[in-house]
Each structure stands twice: as structure tokens, then as C-alpha cells.
Amino acid sequence: MIPFNQPAIVGRELNYIRQSVKSGWIGGDGPFTKKCNRWFEEKFKAKKVLLTNSCTAALEMAAILCDIQPGDEIILPSFTFVSTASAFVMRGAKLVFVDIREDTLNIDEQLIERVVTKKTKAIVPVHYAGVGCDMRAILKLAKAYKLFVIEDAAQGVMASYRGKALGTWGDFGAYSFHETKNYTSGEGGALLVNDPEYIHRAEIVLEKGTNRKEFYRGLVDKYTWVDLGSSYLPSDIVAAFLYGQLEKAEVVTRRRVDIWNRYYQRLLAFEEKGLMQLPMVPPECVHNGHLFYMILRSPQACLNFAKYLKSHGVATAFHYVPLHRSPMAKRLGAYKVKLPVTDFVVERLLRLPVFYGLINKEQDLVVDRIYKWFK
């Protein structure tokens, strides 16, 4: 069986875990946590990066830093993971779903302005499959209406839009290092603080609402509770594993993009015949090979195709149940919305295996099975 995903040891992860344990500091904000933070700041020219225990935690921190209040409206796509929404719902916000583009499956920037109201507080673009949203248009709109922009770049590490890293365009950005991501620590995430005005408070929110960092810096004699916050820091053991992955980030990215390109080149003929739609990457975007999908012509065809591949040793995966069709959306009253592109895509989208350890011979087998199915 060719798995859909398989995490891999790509460098010195295990050695770094051993170093972390021997250092005597395996709690939060240890030496490897600081190394990871610096790596991102230097690599992506980010103002401030704070490692978190998940991308969900990073989004929750962003919601606190934006001072989201009950009744505030948040604009986001329905075609995303639940964390994109739940981080703001927990603050009492109202979700305003916008449809996605047919080509990139990112939020349709042309539909955002029509749902902006006096209660709108933030726009949360999601960079699907590591392909950037039209951030220039989104930021222009946000500036006009004085809105926060919080990038859900869970899938966008090492990807860029117009030469600038995803996650560094908005007021805040959020990364994920879940085991399904390109660079992983099992669980984990990071908050990118792109406005220096919020760095000090972000450090407090990260430390459970205390001024502990000021204590470590010798600025106060004791640290205490000063603001909202929670236990958002990861263990330094987790950071040690992640740092080993980050050191090989370029190698991992090249391999995943190579896998992506091989799929695209060998399946393009099916798209040209109208049998499927393949991913599209706009010229202003550089993707990271996070995932490769195909959109089939009908829901039944997609279901049958997935069953066929599974029966022939190839694991595939569908993707999100769109949030506006979820039980929680009904409870929140956020389900009465027409999103034709989203509804069309989710019934027909199928993802193929993409992971660092996928060898060419295995990928050739996947493509061979696809050819036999369509034949």
C-alpha cells in the first residue's frame, strides 16, 4: 500500500532531541524554540515569530491580539479547516463565509467587499495547497476599511506571493507543523507578528498572559498575570525535532515540488481532454509542493475513483467538509449562504500521495493506476 502521507526523519532531529533532554530544559521557550524562531525570522524576514503548540493556537493568539469581541464579523472561506473559524468563534465573533476561486481554490478576493459591514473586524485568507491568495488586493481592501488581515498559512511554509513569504503579508500569519505538513514536529505551529506594535503583547499572550519574558530579561523582579493568554508554548523537545526538519527545508521543498511537477506533467493530458481539473499556480506565486489534487467531473466519479485506487494499493484523501455545511455552522446560524464553487469542488476533489519519502517508482505506480482507470 502506498500511503497518502508518511512523516520522515530528514536530518538531525533525533540528535537534537537528545541534546534538548541533556540540556536540562525541555519545557517551553527553550534553546531549540529560540533557534526555530530565529530561523523563520531570518529566512522570511519576519518581524517576530513565536513558536506555538499548534496552528490553532497561533490563530487563537491572533484573535486575542486583534481584540476580537462578541458580534465582530470575520470574513473567511468555508473551504478550510475548522481552526480557521473556531479561533474567532471562541471570542464570540460572527463568521461571514465567502466563496473560493475556481482556479486556485483560494478565497475569491473579488467577493470580499460586498460582505464588509460596520461590524467587520478582520479578513482571514487561507493559502490553500501552499498557493498564495491575492494578498495585494486583500490588503488594499483591508486598508480601505481598516480591517485586520490574519493569514492562515498552515500549508504555506516556504511558499511565496510576489517574492514575499506567505504569512508575512498580513498583520499576523499562522503556520502549522502537524504531521501532514511539509516540515513537521508531529504537532506544532507558529505565529508571525508582522506589526511591531503587537510584539510585546504577543509575548505576554504566549506566556499564559504573564510578563514572564520581562522577568527573564531582568526587567521585573517577579512575573505576574497581566493580560489574556493561555499555554501556547510547545515543549523544547518538539522544537528540537522541528529544527532538524527546518535545516533540511530546502531539500524537502525541492523533493515535494519535483513530485508535484511529475504528477502535473503526466496528468495534464487528462485535463486537456476535460476529464479532470489540476491545480493552478498563478505566475506571481511560488508554491511548496504541499499537496496535489484533481477535481473530477462528478461526485460519483470521484468516489468510484478513490475506491478503485484504494483497491489497487494507493491511498488517497478527500478534503474539508466545508464549514458552512457543518453542524456547528447551523448552531451558529452561519450556514444560510450560497457558495457554488465551494459546493462543487468539495464533492469532486481527490488528493494524491505527496510526501518526502515517496520514490519515483511508487509515484509511477500511482500514475499507472490512474491511466488504467481512465482507459
Shape: globular
For this structure, what is the CATH homologous superfamily of the largest domain?
Answer: Type I PLP-dependent aspartate aminotransferase-like (Major domain)
How many angstroms does the end-to-end distance come to? 22 Å
Radius of gyration: 21 Å
Q: Provide the number of structural domains.
A: 2
The second-level CATH architecture of the largest domain is 3-Layer(aba) Sandwich
Share in β-strands: 5-15%
The helical percent reads: 25-40%
**Biggest beta-sheet profile:** 7 strands, mixed
Briefly note the CATH topology name of the largest domain. Aspartate Aminotransferase, domain 2
Let me know the average pLDDT. 97
Low-confidence stretches: none
Instruction: Indicate the CATH class of the largest domain.
Output: Alpha Beta
Topology as a string of helices (H) and strands (E): HHEHEHEEHEEEEEHHHHEEEHHHEH
Based on helices, strands and strand pairing, what is the structural class? alpha/beta
